[in-house]
Structure formats: structure tokens, C-alpha cells
Design brief:
With 331 residues, the chain is mainly β. It has two helices and 17 strands. The protein has helices at 137-148, 174-185; strands spanning 29-34, 37-38, 49-51, 60-66, 75-81, 90-104, 106-118, 127-136, 153-157, 163-173, 188-191, 196-200, 256-259, 271-275, 278-282, 284-286, 293-296. Strand 14 and strand 15 (278-282) form a beta hairpin.
Length: 331
């Protein structure tokens, strides 16, 4: 869970007693707008949980609300600062997904447990059906946003991202389509609190400090170190080539080859290949692309060459002349 940034704010004279708080500093306030209503006074501050997930994972917000019932689907924005949420201090924006009414000791005391999600949810309004070939990932992301998510902007897409050879989508939601594009180049994306899509390989923006050497007005700020999103093993799936012929199983110990179109993906020293749902080891390859084969198991060398076929005597109805034979060695 990421810590919320606490901006420096200004205090007006007469707002606090002198000597009670440093001039020029104040404890920032929590602000929330639900729909078009300013309602921080109705939110139980100790119930607020904001999860700022990395990359394309949506951010979530939960809190308990008193007073008027919230409308599911209504917009919600959160800011930390002295006054109303602004572009400078907004830390969350999205929609209310669910609201559960609860009684607090008495039926007269009704409260609502609210769950909200950021703009990632709205990106799923339309499905992507398109194909892009030999274009920069920057161009593809911008095209997807402009065509299938016109309510959003693509102003924060990194320019000059690597080229994607070919990628197609058939009725996929926008978040999934964006993830596939960025995965193809080893990049990332997310939507910010202003509805702008960020797509990048490396982003220069730095995270806000959780603590400092000389903290001021950082009441109840805590740092949590969480390894749940760190992987200790990452599998990489490489490229490959199509087989040029059907292959039949062979007895254990026999030589097996798989003819392939392109040998460029395979190593002379062998390795692992994926065939359908199977993962097989291979020893080496031989031949040229289009005719070569990946060799499975032990190889068998040819000891002697075959003798030349004897000439065929002329017979009635048979062509006269030298006959040639093509020989195939089988282990």
C-alpha cells in the first residue's frame, strides 16, 4: 500500500493560536467529493483505506459514510490539502462500486460501508476489435484510447516506444488490450486521477516521500514494506517456429525429429521447446530453415553409404535409361 503524499500547506493567522502551531504550516485536511457534494464531515476518518496499486492494477478506496445514502456508480474524489480537492492535491478519483447499509447500535443510526474503484473500471465500457501491424506501441496505445475510450486522454504516453510487429484484438476490454500491448515491449501502463493514460517503459515521476529526516505535520504516517507483489521466479517464453509436417511418436531411445520452418529460434547446444501443452528437451538441430529439424533424444550416425542401385533393364512399357534413387536414413 503506497503512502499518501502530504503537501505543505499554509495557515491563516487567527485560525490557530500563536505558539500552538508553526506559522506557515498546518496539518493537512482530508477532503472528499461524492457526486457533486462536498462531504468530508460525513466520512469516518479511521475507516478510510486507499490502496494505490502499481501499474495497471486498479486503485481502490473504502470508507464508512454517515448521512445521505451514496449512489452506486456516482463519482468520488479524494484529496489531502487545506481546502477543496484540486488538481494539485487529488490522490484518488473513480466511481462507487458498492454501498452496504449497516446499523450502528440502533436502527436510527444508519451508516454505509462504501467501496470505490479508480477510472480503470470506466475503461471497460467498450470492447476493442482491431489489428495493428508494424507500429510503435505509443501509436497503438493512443489509437486504442482515442477510438475505444474517447472519455480519456493519452497525453502521458511515452513517445518513441518500440515497434510491435503485429497484434490483434477480438472483443477485448481496453485495460486488457493496453496490458497486452505493453507486455509485448516490456512496458507498463496505468490511468491517473485525471483520466489520463500513462504508458511507458521507464517513468521519470518519483514516488512521494513517506518520511523525512526532519518531519513536520506528519501525524500518524506509517511506512509499510510489502513483498506480496514481488516475484522470486519469473518464467520467460521465447519465440518459435511452426512444424512443416505431422510427427508421430517413436519408441523410447529412437531418434525423433520435428521439421520446422525457421531454425533461427533454436540453439545448436539444445534446450527446451513447447509443443502444444508439452515441454520437450531437444539436443540440437540440423539442415536449413524450411527443411531442417529439431532433433529429440539420442542421435544415430550413419555408418556406411548405400550402394548405387543397379541399372534397370528395359522392359515393355518401362522408360529406358539410368534410374536414380533418393535414400532416407531412419534410426
Amino acid at each position: 500500500m503506497a503512502a499518501l503524499p502530504i503537501p505543505r500547506a499554509n495557515a491563516l493567522l487567527n485560525t490557530f493560536r500563536l505558539n500552538q502551531l508553526r506559522l506557515g504550516e498546518m496539518i493537512p485536511t482530508f477532503g472528499i467529493i461524492i457526486g457533486n457534494d462536498w462531504r468530508p464531515q460525513d466520512v469516518r476518518l479511521d475507516s478510510v483505506t486507499l490502496v494505490d496499486a502499481i501499474n495497471d492494477e486498479p486503485n481502490t478506496l473504502s470508507f464508512r459514510l454517515q448521512g445521505a445514502a451514496p449512489v452506486v456508480g456516482a463519482s468520488v474524489a479524494v484529496a489531502i490539502g487545506p481546502w477543496l480537492p484540486t488538481d494539485e492535491n487529488k490522490v484518488f478519483a473513480g466511481q462507487i462500486l458498492s454501498a452496504q447499509a449497516v446499523y450502528e447500535s440502533s436502527p436510527a443510526n444508519v451508516a454505509y460501508d462504501v467501496q470505490a474503484i479508480d477510472y480503470t473500471w470506466l475503461l471497460k465500457k467498450r470492447l476493442v476489435s482491431a489489428m495493428y501491424t508494424a507500429q510503435s506501441a505509443s501509436t497503438i496505445v493512443q489509437a486504442i484510447v482515442q477510438t475505444f475510450a474517447p472519455d480519456f486522454t493519452a497525453n502521458d504516453v511515452q513517445s518513441g516506444l518500440p515497434v510491435v510487429d503485429a497484434i490483434s484484438f477480438a472483443n477485448e476490454d481496453v485495460p486488457n488490450a493496453l496490458s497486452r500491448v505493453m507486455e509485448a515491449i516490456g512496458g507498463y501502463w496505468y490511468v491517473d486521477s485525471w483520466g489520463s493514460i500513462h504508458a511507458f517503459q521507464y517513468e521519470a515521476e518519483q514516488a512521494s516521500m513517506v518520511t523525512s529526516d526532519n518531519p513536520n505535520t506528519m501525524v500518524d504516517i506509517a511506512q509499510t514494506i510489502d513483498l506480496s507483489q514481488v516475484s522470486n521466479k519469473v518464467y520467460v517464453r521465447g519465440g518459435g517456429s511452426r512444424a512443416t509436417a505431422d510427427c508421430s511418436p517413436v519408441d523410447q531411445g529412437d531418434l525423433a525429429t520435428i521439421p520446422v520452418e525457421d531454425l533461427g529460434w533454436y540453439a545448436v547446444g539444445g534446450g527446451l521447446i513447447e509443443v502444444g501443452s508439452q515441454r520437450l528437451s531437444y539436443d540440437t538441430y540440423h539442415g536449413d530453415s524450411g527443411t531442417g529439424s529439431v532433433i529429440l533424444g539420442d542421435t544415430v550416425s550413419v555408418q556406411t553409404a548405400p550402394s548405387a542401385a543397379p541399372p534397370v533393364p528395359p522392359e515393355s512399357g518401362r522408360l529406358v535409361g539410368q534410374y536414380q534413387y533418393k535414400t532416407t536414413f531412419v534410426s
